[in-house]
Hints:
Number of strands: 0
Order of helices and strands: HHHHH
Radius of gyration: 14 Å
Low-confidence stretches: none
Distance between the termini: 31 Å
Helix content: over 70%
Shape: flat
Mean pLDDT: 84
Structural class: mainly alpha
Amino acid sequence: EVLDFKTLVVKIIGLTLSVASGMALGKEGPLVHVACCWANFCSKLSPRYMENEGKRRELISTAAAAGVAVAFGAPVGGVLFSYEEVSTMFPSKT
């Protein structure tokens, strides 16, 4: 699976080695993927998120926003990216 714990471990090791070696590979995409993997892993620990797929998607969307915010150093940009691209729907309350 794309968001599995095994993928998280491999992605962290690969990202660490590529950034430490000075390779010009870009860390933005892997940082978003690592954040989403962490959110998926944490959602499996809580019955609130494990039983509700909608809540799990919201958590992963929030993690994608955090990953973009960390990668580019722009918290508002991360939120806007999540709102525009990642989340498929938001309730009318927001």
